[in-house]
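Q: What structure does this chain adopt?
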Amino acid sequence: MKNMIAYCGLNCETCDAYLATVNDDQELREKTARLWAELNQAPILPEHINCEGCRVDGIKTIYCDSLCAIRQCAVKKGVTTCGSCQSIEKCQTVEMVLSTNPDALKNLQSVPKTADHE
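A:
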């Protein structure tokens, strides 16, 4: 089974973009686009809400694919997740997720540090 824990520790399987994609749920895409557009003060449209997971091959939202500083850093460093990065304890980039989502750190601790990208 593909590991759906994102580089930051969030669980992709609970993300509305992922759920809308795997269930081909247009209503959820529209709802998520409205919410994310408001939260990010950006023009996010329903067609932007398609993602199969942060660390797996396949389609990603525009944000996850090219704008997420956490994902870009992890890919550049070649780490499995931020949990396997030696700089995690002082990292300001991933701290924005870890400080607001305690489950993210638990998720990172559950991912093997030497697992291949899935």
